[in-house]
Amino acid sequence: MISIEHVLFVGALLLFISVMASKASDRFGVPALLLFLGIGMLAGSEGIGKIYFNDPWLAKSLGVLALIFILYSGGLDTSWKDIRHVLAPGVALATVGVLLTAVFVGIFAVYMLKFSPLEGALLGAIVSSTDAAAIFSVLKSKRVSLRGKLRPLLELESGSNDPMAVFLTLGLIQLLSNPTLPVLHLIPTFILEFAVGLVMGYLCGKGIVIITNRIKLAYEGLYPVLMIAMVILVYAVTAFFKGNGFLSVYIASVIVGNSNFIHKKTLMKFHEGLAWLMQIAMFLALGLLVFPSKIVPVVGIGLLIALFLMFIARPVSVFLCLAFSKLTVREKTMVSWVGLRGAVPIILATFPLSAGLPKADLIFNIVFFISLTSVLFQGTSVPFVSRLLKVDAPVKDKPLYPLEFEYTGKINATLEDIIVPYHSEAVGKSIVKLGVPTGALIVLVSRDDQFFIPNGATIIKEGDVLLVLANKQDLQRLYGVVNRVKSGVAA
């Protein structure tokens, strides 16, 4: 029997190697997902580690738990101010786009693999959702961003399309397991799951904020524990009421992330770290689960399906969903290319395995190869494609300040930075002559990568970054003062 010390050593070693491998992701622009999966495969029974792992149910359970916290962390970072302008196209891509992709891939699989229509649809449903996390890590490492509404649109789509893919996958598995069940059974199930998921997500999100602000725990270290418990409860309670737990978790996290609650920055950093831990653990487990010798026979058909998905199914779905949007053809093409298949399809591929469906092994191996191909080719080519389509923009680094403001509920204020434009009327004036609202305080100035504490006699220069402590009303007034253009200068 293997000792607990041995298990802890191997687990810690794999975790350490994965964290170190993320440095390679930053340096060479290789998506971290690919590296984590590779480490898992190397540690597996057919790799140098010789660790035998063949438990689809455990892999599926770990994947579900990981997906809950990954979705929650992503929702916390989603700014409602940014996504509200792309809500309609984002929701269309996350629902209709996922459905169309599943249908197109399903039809292709029926003809290429001689699958039954339901088996083809299942394969299509599994690979229908996107994973933009790896894409944004590549863009960050290459110091490239996407202009206009592209980034918030992709964030909204990738954060909200997993529930639809999960619903389709589970529904099709149910139909395959019970052939007498009518296909139309999925329609009322869909309406119920998503309606309950939306309502529960909204109510739970509001509830999390209220509880966090009012419970007043004696120990600050208990707040992350409380948040973990509430996140899991959101998923479990929603599932109990026959709703879509993943959708509920995402909606709740967006509401929480756009609200003020005590220890907000600490909790958001905690969940960012927890999401990374979940991703690494999940990827390692999925890498251990796969047998490379079983991937080789499906390389040919897997490549055909991957190419069909990249160049036909995804683009057609995107252009249909965005037909009435104001995005240009280049921007729609970029959205099509950023349809990266990542960890979620591999997690969903464990569902047929745990259900014991006849072609589950074949589906899992094909999906694993498709995800690898997508990450390898699409993921690494995103910076080049963005420049080719001229939709790229330089990354704007957010300055790291030597102080932080933590909301405690005892002050109606927030800490924000304001950049002084080059033609601002404020340039050349002292702070005392700016007309700073009485409820606002300029606590720090960043100039030439240096920080200093200002006083009333401090002269404002173009390009200064002012760190301001103020309530929303006074903050908007100060924005107006700083952004007022000098007379005689074209706006």
Describe the secondary structure blueprint for this structure.
Layout: H1 4-28, H2 32-43, H3 56-76, H4 80-83, H5 87-113, H6 117-126, H7 132-141, E1 144-146, H8 150-160, H9 162-177, H10 186-214, H11 222-240, H12 245-257, H13 264-289, H14 292-295, H15 299-321, H16 329-337, H17 343-355, H18 360-388, E2 392-394, E3 414-419, E4 440-447, E5 450-452, E6 465-470, H19 472-482
Antiparallel strand pairs: 1-2, 3-6, 4-5, 4-6
Helix pairs in contact: 1-2, 1-7, 1-13, 2-13, 3-12, 3-13, 3-17, 5-6, 5-8, 5-9, 5-15, 6-9, 7-18, 9-17, 10-11, 10-12, 11-12, 15-16, 15-18, 17-18
User: Low-confidence parts, pLDDT < 50 over ≥5 residues?
Assistant: none
Rounded to an integer in angstroms, the radius of gyration calculated over CA atoms is 25 Å
What would the average pLDDT be, to the nearest integer? 86
Structural class of the secondary elements? Answer: mainly alpha
Q: Which architecture name of the largest domain does CATH use?
A: Up-down Bundle
Quaternary state of the chains: single chain
Shape: globular
**CATH fold-level label of the largest domain:** Na+/H+ antiporter like fold
